[in-house]
Design goal:
By secondary structure, the protein is of the alpha/beta class. It contains 13 helices and 22 strands. The strands form 5 sheets. Strands 1, 2, 3, 4, 5, 6 and 17 form a 7-stranded mixed sheet that branches. Strands 8-15-9-10-11 form a 5-stranded parallel sheet, covered by helices on one side. Strands 18-19-22-21-20 form a 5-stranded antiparallel sheet, with helices on both faces. The chain is globular, with a radius of gyration of 24 Å. It binds flavin-adenine dinucleotide.
Length: about 475
């Protein structure tokens, strides 16, 4: 007899959803989580703080209202870290409360401490005060996530040279910042600080950034960021960083020296699989601390599952939640459908980006023909009302059967709007549905109809020439 039917390690999005799904199936469930980390990286240092910070930045700088009220429009002139962190702490506090209450309502036992495998059915929980308790479970779900990767050559001090977790603890808004790594997290923070007036330099080893996105949209994003005084150094590598009393200097391999108040490393994340004594359960993590699983999220030890960032790509809160639910269902013998292949990507830069399906480059490479339908926010009444002249929605449509192959959105509400396209694609709908649909007016959603008409007119034009 085990102490629990299901034991979950980590209370981030994947662990939480796994625990609650198992509890809903009447299993005796416990979740192990470190002190002050309920909700995981997602709630405490990652998704939620960064998205709340973005909201505070957009509001306080008045950036989204400048097309209406003029370039100098500001809600507050001297934006301090206190202004920004007030909103972040409020949201984190409320989210932690919500999660705690959900776990309680579903009778999930919360075991506070750091869990490590003792054997393949036992986890020892260290409560950080030197007390260790052993708990056993029939099924164990590992959802311990990741931490920022820190290059060994860099001397982080968490003030001048920081990783992405350090951003929310900054004591003041820096005048200048170097962001090393133009991945999603790096670029999101670069755009927020640029909006606050920080002079940002982005250094990226590759020649492009966010290469999995639509190229035209990334060009628009770069244009916007340059307009906010962001400097890009693509194809450059930081060789070393020197810390000085008044800031830091990054030496690039090309010989350039860049000075700034703060250097932020956003150089990927390291899985915590190497810190939970996996060997005692007959498992091992890969060099990046991640754990391999099969399509049911089972590790090579059948009753041990792994979900969320610890299993690698796509490493999003959105997908992690669903992995947690599916793993719990499998562990409890409950039938479940596979995870849907069609997953949206949201990038909360300023302006934001979102897409679902394939890009023009991917389709061209695969030799799949497509027609492009575009709607620009400036041609929509809602775009004028909210003062967003740069936003756009792009549909990639199959000329053969009218099916949507990709939906790409840039500008206000992109991460919400994309779900209309996702739904049409997921239900095998065609561009005709969008052409015929009536949308509320004035809305940004109307962009779907405008883009659909654009694609349809282009296809008709080709047809006319050909006949
Ligand atoms: C700055 C930033 C912005 C992001 N923005 C987005 C976004 O906009 N949208 C999106 O979908 N995703 C975003 N992500 C990614 C998202 O946060 C992660 O994909 C998600 O948090 C992963 O969830 P998880 O369940 O794997 O666990 P995590 O959230 O990583 O949490 C793991 C938990 O396990 C706990 N843990 C670790 N080891 C142990 C142990 N030994 N014992 C007990 N507990 C342990 C940790 O304390 C932690 O609480 C962002 C990430 C970052 C860093």
């Amino acid at each position: 007899m085990y102490d629990f039917d299901v034991l979950v390690l980590g209370s981030g999005p994947s662990g939480q959803k796994a625990a609650i799904a198992a509890a809903k199936l009447d299993r005796r469930v416990a979740i192990v989580e470190r002190r002050n980390m309920i909700g995981g990286v997602c709630i405490n240092t990652g998704t939620i703080p960064s998205k709340t910070l973005r909201e505070a930045v957009v509001y306080l700088t008045g950036l989204s209202q400048r097309e209406v009220y003029g370039r100098d429009y500001r809600v507050k002139d001297d934006i301090t870290v206190a202004d920004l962190s007030a909103r972040t702490s409020h949201v984190i506090g409320r989210e932690v409360e919500v999660i705690r209450s959900q776990l309680q309502r579903n009778r999930v036992r919360l075991l506070v401490g750091t869990g490590r495998f003792f054997d393949e059915h036992t986890v020892s929980v260290d409560d950080d005060g030197g007390r260790e308790t052993k708990v056993t479970a029939e099924k164990i779900i590992v959802a311990v996530g990741t931490k920022p990767a820190r290059p060994d050559t860099v001397d982080f001090d968490d003030r001048t040279i920081i990783d992405s977790d350090g951003i929310i603890n900054l004591e003041h808004v820096p005048n200048s910042m170097i962001v090393v790594g133009a991945g999603v997290i790096g670029i999101e923070y670069a755009s927020m600080f640029a909006a606050l007036g920080t002079k940002v330099t982005v250094v990226e080893r590759r020649d492009r950034m966010l290469e999995f996105c639509d190229l035209e949209i990334i060009e628009s994003l770069k244009y916007h960021l340059r307009d906010l005084a962001v400097t890009f150094r693509f194809g450059e590598t930081v060789a070393s960083v020197e810390r000085h009393p008044r800031g830091a200097i990054a030496m690039l391999e090309s010989g350039k020296r860049i000075g700034a108040d703060t250097v932020v490393f956003s150089a990927g994340r390291q899985g915590l699989g190497s810190e939970i004594n996996l060997e005692s359960a007959g498992l091992a993590a890969d060099p990046r601390g991640r754990i391999e699983v099969n399509e049911n999220y089972q590790t090579s030890v059948d009753h041990i599952y792994a979900v969320g960032d610890i299993i690698g790509f796509p490493a999003l809160a959105s997908t992690s939640m669903e992995q947690g639910r599916l793993a719990a269902h499998h562990a409890c013998g409950e039938p479940a459908r596979d995870m849907q292949k069609l997953q949206p990507i949201g990038i909360y830069t300023i302006p934001e980006i979102s897409f679902v399906g394939r890009t023009e480059d991917e389709l061209t490479e695969a030799r799949i023909p497509f027609e492009v339908g575009i709607a620009r926010y400036r041609e929509l009444a809602r775009g004028q009302i909210i003062g967003d002249s740069y936003g756009m929605l792009k549909l990639l449509v199959s000329p053969d059967d009218g099916k949507l192959l990709g939906v790409h959105v840039f500008g206000t509400g992109a991460t919400e709007l994309v779900h209309i396209g996702q739904t049409v694609m997921g239900c095998n709908g065609t561009v005709d549905y969008l052409v015929d649909a009536v949308f509320n007016y004035p809305t940004l959603a109307e962009s779907y109809k405008v883009a659909a008409l654009d694609a349809m007119n282009k296809t008709r034009h080709i047809h006319r020439i050909a006949t």
